[in-house]
Write a structure and sequence with these properties.
alpha/beta, eight-stranded parallel barrel, three-stranded mixed sheet, 49% helix, binds 1,3-dihydroxyacetonephosphate
Amino acid sequence: MTTKTGTIVNTVEMFQEAQKGKYAIPAFNVHNLETIQVVIETAAELSSPVILAGTPGTISYAGGDYLVSIVETAAKKYNIPISLHLDHFETFDEIKKYIDMGVKSCMIDASHHPFEENIQVVKEVVDYARKYGVSVEAELGRLGGVEDDLVVDEKDEKFTSPLQALEFIERTNIDSLAVAIGTAHGLYVGEPKIDFERLEEIHNIVDIPLVLHGASDVPNEYVKRTIELGICKVNIATDLKIPFSNAVKEYFRQNPDANDPRKYMTPGKIAMKEVVVEKIHMCGSNGKA
Ligand code: 13P
């Protein structure tokens, strides 16, 4: 597909290629320069298109302007399509602010609202995003678990209805849909129970790319099966954070007087890289840039 883009891209072309080739684009949650470096350098080595995702908490922590600059720099440097994505943003104003800074992909998560209100909130974002070539993901149904400051109790989880999904897409004109089919943000208590039949039903009547949230701690074969059934974007956060921080903790255990970030961050980056390699292979996006 596209080789050197030289700039941050939206996800439209990435997803078209992924749908044709029956693979998925990995979306890795990043938090700082180090995690961005690991994701982009690894994706470039494996020639994979990649999405870097930031939750509202992350983007305000790192600074949208800093993140855009870092990712723009990477896009000039590497021959792979790179998108910077707003993950689980809940308001138009916040999304507008970062689109104005140069972000080209966003998720408006109004899934906590009733159906009609969800549509209204999403439509406002789509109308604005279209003018700037920004792709928009929205969620229907409600995923459980914990993603940064977003905490959804199991009792509030709600699976996506296939027929509602069709209506939702027609009325909002979104580019991709996050589906709730049994995955949850964070770690699982026991095996995740994924409703593959529901996913298949949605995929049979909906033609836009589908997004799997909460892919950490889900067996690779399950994720691969969801990709066969129409998932085009796989979101991964927790599976990166745990090995990164464990390796840094271990470094401090062995070197209690360490104080050089270049030294204590490095084992974290190495541990995270291994997972990024594995997830890119799981998505089948290696060699697709
Ligand atoms: P995990 O932390 O479960 O990987 O979820 C990531 C996610 O879905 C980000 O939106």
